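tl;dr need the bound structure. longer version: we got a ligand (zinc ion) that a collaborator sent over and nobodys looked at where it sits. i said id run it. heres the input, straight from their email, havent touched it
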Amino acid sequence: MVQFVEARRVGGDGVVNALRMTRTEWEQLQRTYSVGELVMPCCPSPAIPKLSPNGHPFFAHASGACSSSEESQWHQAAKILVRSALEDLGCTASMEEPGSGDRGRWQADVWAERGSVKLAVEIQRSYQSLRDYRDRQERYRAAGVLGLWLLRSDRYHTLCKSMGKERLRTEFGGKFPPEGHFSPCLADVPVARLELEPDPTITGAGFFSASVPQLLDAVLTGRFRCIDGLWCIDNLDSMRQALKDSRDRAAAEREAKRRR
Ligand SMILES: [Zn+2]
């Protein structure tokens, strides 16, 4: 069941956005709405206001049925979430925004502007080669636009593998560094993993984690940076600690197994 943060009011009366309601307002909506007065953004199905087990408000299809595939629902829900979060950060934001620069044209999944800052967020759902990610990113860079890729787990994994191979080849002469953990990220492809369920979360290689607004705010202010093959905000120390903890745990488990 894909979770949407927004639903449309029937009769062209605008939208209801879960991110902009207090808990009390949300509970009141849950008590008072009648089925059919709110519809999903993806299709004409009635939208039901719900709460996740962690108390995160969202809309879901009344019957669970939607005419679009799970993948395309997820893509739309992610775009709406990112657009809403960018608006809450003071941006003018829109979806499927066409544009162009010296290196060619594009259509950004989510486009945002705040002051002189322009940001394109791509929520990539189908496979594309590392070359394609870099080409698009270069198109944005050449036009003075910041770029950000948000990928679902499987897609993120595939891209990290390609980036890691590329980094190994170009920066390490094809050999894994003798010490320490190898970090896969390339500095010209700003990327993080986005999951919507059970609650929206951002994670990434090297134990990176952030909320959606935290990440977007960091991108807008130039604080989302690639350091030694890891994309991070200002949490590299806590990421390193988490890595160390996880290694220590694995080592302790191996040791316990050996003694058995
Ligand atoms: Zn639908």
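gonna send this back to them w/ a short note. The radius of gyration is 21 Å.
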